[in-house]
Write a structure and sequence with these properties.
- The structure is a single chain.
- By secondary structure, the protein is an alpha+beta fold.
- The protein has 2 domains: about 55 residues; about 45 residues, SH3 type barrels.
- The chain is about 50% helix and about 25% strand.
- Strands 4-3-2-1-5 form a 5-stranded antiparallel sheet.
- It is rod-shaped.
- It starts with a helix and ends in an 8-residue tail after the last strand.
- The mean pLDDT is about 85.
Length: about 110
Amino acid sequence: MNLFINDALAGAAAPAAAAAQQPGGLVGLIFPIGLIVILYFFMIRPQVKRQKEHKALVDSLKKGDEVQTMGGLMGRITSVDENFVKVEVADGVVVTVRRAAIEAVMPKGTLKES
């Protein structure tokens, strides 16, 4: 009979010792929350900032701007539509591209007349 009593006491003491060694619920969440914060500041926030800058650039396009497309074409805007822009890449050569495909507005005089 003594044998069963010792087992019962040992079984009751083990969960109490395990509970004392486990960290609290809030302490266990610090690491995942820290990872999310680091992810936000190093990946998400800069990407959102770049998207806002690109949207402002696309919204400010006007006729006569010298632009570079994401494909590398450089030319002068001849016509601006709601979704598309016509870019003259050479004399008499006009290409239609999406407004979102414009990567940069170049300084005036970048394209030399020949």
